[in-house]
Amino acid sequence: MPELPEVETVVRGLKAVLPGKRITEIRFNKTDFIDNPADVAENLPGKRIAAVRRHGKFIVFDLIDGASRSTALLIHLGMTGQLITTPPEAPISPHTHIFFSLDNGRELRYTDIRRFGRVQFLPGGVDGSPLAELGLDALETNEKEFIERLRGRKARIKALLLDQRVLRGMGNIYTDESLWHARIHPARIAASLRDDELGTLYKAVQKVLKEAIRLKGSSVSDYVDSDGNRGEFQLHHRVYMRKGEKCFRCRTPIQRMIVAGRSSYFCPHCQRAPRTRAKKRPVERSKRL
DNA sequence: CTTACGGCCTGGGTGC
DNA sequence: TGCACCCAGGCCGTAA
User: Which tops the pLDDT comparison, A275 or A197?
Assistant: First the structure.
């Protein structure tokens, strides 16, 4: 599942080979995950890739044409999206849906089993695009901004970390891993966290994301980088998908519960549950008094 | 405005 | 062998 570290790894791989190359031809298989396929088909051929960069979990291709007009192509990998550069004669993996021919004789392919990914051509560049709605980059923000963004919020901390309008880049894996490192229960209300706890969380997020990038991401389902290689951070997960296994700190079995509509893994000993509001007293109970 | 939640998209894995 | 069902992340509509 591509989150910030996986997208960063893919982008680093693409940065090494794509800038300066021209897209000579584009071919599709299925197109239902593309915002406006005709737009993409019409506008991409002939464009030169000026830059490739990551914006949260989005990949941005900055494009220029002969008249130096700036446009962009936005790709979100969803859950199972892959962007791989390959020789055109290489065997085609199942579920490959976009083929970008490049002027150096190579091919860039988009493969996506579930097609939860999204592709969009931005004729006016990134202004006013979905990118404008996103919050602070989880990796580029500082501790002060991070704390201010979360302080006083009434939502559960996990929901806020996952909300791309608050913080961009975090997904289910890195949220759970960061909360475990910071010893914060996923269902805690953000407003109940002291500034020092938010500071600890900030440091945990940075540590987890940086280590995951160093190991080229987590290959839990079918994630691979732009050269088709798997990451290794899944071997370092402390809680994610470890229900029933022992906590690395205290040996307590890891639990799983749904928080913010997502499977959430945590250590019930290291990450204390928030005080639950007292249950409404049943009517029968008052009769007994 | 903020928050919570359910449903939808798709197809691989699982369990019977 | 087949098949029903669960689940993943983002997004959207609805309700409080």
Answer: A197
